[in-house]
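tokens incoming
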């Protein structure tokens, strides 16, 4: 049976989005406060130290560590090339020399006449952090990164895999209850973020990744398809580091589940617009949700300047909800009444309930614990 996770998703046509963009260690910030940046603009950079590789020079030369100095041709701090001679014996009449060559391109970190070892270090790895979204730089973190801010359409998902990606919003179904089929995926979707309806399968994921599609946003996926695509079971730890060549965002839950009308309409309205997505998810302490961010044009941002996010007040009359238990599992509706008194349910337990009108027009009463709030 299908099942959904995590209450309180945000789906909104426009809100202020701020994101911190930090380096993994100290480095250089290369933008300034007030700069307008695109999603691909590099905002900070640094270098990760290369791995070290020890070489037993004394042993390879068959000399004592104390005598090593007379045989070493390089010193600490010198740059070296692969196969460059680091040390050698004098040989007999200049012949039959024993040589030690560098196994890497890098630098000599140290040479010890106590251990006879030389420590070589591989070249550093450049690390660059981009802005992730088209935005304005609003704050600097000295030697670490920046805060960027924009006004955007914002959609949170239930679950996702894969890290940050950017692409063009490209719907391939015309209804939120339609699944994505493999024949819908074509080479034209390279670099695109595909918007589907109710379901994506492992075959579709594999084909999309193969042609270079950067992301898929869809209502549901069966857990066995996800396991087959990844090659392992997903636990409760954070996702987002999967290296499958594509990011996946599930908006409703596991199983075949039609995407909520509001979510689908928002994404369809943004057809051909540039978006940034991130499948990273954590559903326990420190909740992290997958997201779709579609920045507005500068003109729209200016028009919305000064608008603030609504502060969530929790459930109230008029709130949009999704029911996450049978018999109305997956149904979307609006709260019409929140009776304060406890009421007995089928299990004989007494709980607080709510009354809601579903999109179909049906009026239902359900325990408050059986719904999730859709924040707007």
């Amino acid at each position: 049976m299908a099942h959904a996770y995590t209450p309180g998703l945000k789906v909104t046509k426009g809100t202020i989005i701020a994101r911190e963009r930090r380096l993994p260690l100290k480095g250089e910030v290369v933008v300034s406060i007030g700069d307008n940046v695109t999603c691909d603009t590099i905002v900070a950079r640094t270098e990760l130290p290369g791995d070290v590789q020890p070489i037993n020079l004394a042993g390879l030369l068959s000399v004592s560590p104390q005598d090593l100095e007379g045989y070493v041709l390089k010193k600490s701090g010198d740059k070296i090339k692969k196969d460059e001679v680091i040390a050698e014996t004098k040989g007999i009449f200049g012949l039959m020399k024993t040589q030690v060559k560098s196994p890497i391109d890098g630098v000599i970190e140290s040479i010890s006449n106590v251990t006879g070892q030389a420590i070589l270090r591989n070249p550093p790895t450049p690390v660059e952090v981009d802005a992730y979204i088209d935005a304005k730089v609003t704050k600097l973190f000295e030697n670490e990164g920046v805060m960027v801010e924009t006004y955007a359409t914002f959609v949170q998902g239930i679950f996702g895999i894969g890290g940050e990606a950017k692409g063009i919003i490209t719907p391939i179904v015309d209804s939120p209850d339609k699944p994505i089929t493999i024949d819908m995926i074509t080479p034209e979707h390279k670099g695109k973020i595909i918007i589907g309806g109710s379901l994506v399968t492992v075959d579709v994921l594999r084909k999309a990744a193969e042609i270079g599609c950067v992301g898929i946003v869809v209502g549901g996926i069966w857990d066995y398809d996800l396991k087959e695509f990844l090659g392992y079971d997903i636990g409760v730890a954070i996702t987002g580091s999967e290296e499958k060549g594509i990011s996946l965002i599930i908006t409703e839950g596991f199983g075949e589940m039609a995407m909520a009308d509001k979510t689908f309409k928002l994404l369809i309205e943004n057809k051909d617009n540039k978006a940034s997505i991130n499948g990273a998810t954590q559903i326990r302490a420190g909740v992290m949700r997958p997201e779709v961010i579609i920045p507005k044009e500068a003109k729209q941002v200016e028009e919305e300047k000064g608008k603030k996010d609504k502060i969530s007040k929790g459930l109230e009359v008029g709130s949009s909800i999704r029911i996450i238990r049978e018999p109305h599992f997956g149904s979307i509706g609006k709260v019409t009444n929140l009776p304060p008194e406890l009421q007995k349910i089928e299990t004989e337990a007494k709980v607080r309930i709510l009354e809601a009108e579903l999109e179909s027009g049906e009026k239902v009463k359900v325990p408050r614990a059986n719904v999730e709030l859709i924040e707007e």
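note: The chain has three domains: 9-14+152-303, 52-121, 320-375.
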